[in-house]
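ingest -> validate -> predict -> emit
validate: passed (alphabet ok, no gaps, 221 aa)
predict: started
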Amino acid sequence: MRTTITLLIACGALAFAPDSVIESLSWDRLALMHGEVWRLWTGHVIHFSSTHAATDIFALAIVGAIAERELGSRAIRILLLAGAPLISLALVVTAPGLAEYRGASAIAALLGTAAGLQLWRRAPAARVLLGCITLLAIAKTALDFTGHLTHASSLPAGIHVAWQAHLAAVIVAVTFAQRMQSSPWTSLPDGFPMHLQPPTTLTSDDGPSRRGDTHAHYHLS
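emit:
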């Protein structure tokens, strides 16, 4: 839970940071074009308002706890460090009209998708619930795309959901899950979740045995 708790503390503390600090950390297209690459990561822990931050923190606390339990802290850190900038770069390409972006909902989608894929493989009994959650996520993305949820979000007036970030998060998580599944078990770090550990061969006299968010500010012309 350490990685998740660190993220939650960062989002909560920065929600009350001075405007100058927030503006220096948010995803900003022009600033990125001028080489301020740290924004590829920090834009995901900055929010437009305290309400916006509270909503994302709530979602992040739930999916982060599940993801860290299912995948382990080390895997989550790798996923976040690599996934956050990939999502940000995807926004540069897929949302050319996007001027500014803030929010942790894409990170929540990243962790939630990775955890969901692991649960799908490990716990077949949960597949009906996971399928329902997936359908709801698809429906929400479709509504965000059409703009029908603009007035139902926690965003301030004039700020729209960057659904492209959520879609990019899902793609990154699926790719990560495939890479993780194909990785050799021997490369796993100490402390990896026990239900993901490979079976261990034991020797005895009788022979071997086995045990086992996101959100954006568009400049409209």
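The longest helix spans residues 50-71.
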